[in-house]
Specification:
With 240 residues, the chain is of the alpha/beta class. Strands 6-7-8-3-9-10 form a six-stranded mixed β-sheet, with helices on both faces. Strands 2-1-4-5 form a four-stranded antiparallel β-sheet, covered by helices on one side. Strand 1 and strand 2 form a beta hairpin. Helix 3 runs parallel beside helix 5. The protein is globular, with a radius of gyration of 17 Å. The two termini are 29 Å apart. The mean pLDDT is 89.
Amino acid sequence: MAGMLELHDLSKHFGGNQVFDGINFEVKKGEVYGVIGTNGSGKTTIFNIICGIYKPDGGTVIFDGEDITGMSPWQLGRKGIGRCFQLVKPFQSLTPLENIRVARASAGKYSDGVHMDIDEIIEFANLRDKLNVPTSELSLPDKKNVEIARALACNPKMVLFDEVSCGLSGQEIGQRMEMMRELANRGITIVVIEHIMTFIKEICDRVAVLHAGSLIAEGKPEDVAKDPKVINAYLGGRTL
């Protein structure tokens, strides 16, 4: 498989705090790629750099063969990068349908990624009976569904999921996993940050592990979970 996302020697600091340095990994087209690590290891910061919220202090980000380092979030949305946040960020005053339409109008008409009709997105995200309810009045799982719907309305080539299991029940987590599998089957590349290792082992083709500002392991989840560096740094000396 060809590369969809490449990080080359990526580094970032805030003031005197070095978040990470020399991060290198490649996500292949159509795969589900996991990013795990200890708190403060830079997982969400990497997502923010990929999406244009932060600029790296060093290194480059390549998306679908193009150097996108330092581009703005609206430019990257139009290139086919979608994102679902850990702390949900749909437009609270808009209904789910209005959120979807805004995403389609602002980014979806420019990206040549995977296209789903608005009606298909509504069904996929389980929003049919909530279309005209203000998003602020929805439950957390439904708000997360609105975020997924907004990402899909952008005709994405890749979607970044930041700890989608946070605040959800076991059944709801299982539903999110099925959604990710279906999106990957449709040709959308998935990159997911998650702290639940069993989630990563079940859903991901490969996984990268961050610790103390470095990438300490990368590979298949079952192999990474056995790596002594990962066991000591991330799993506290326990094996799964």
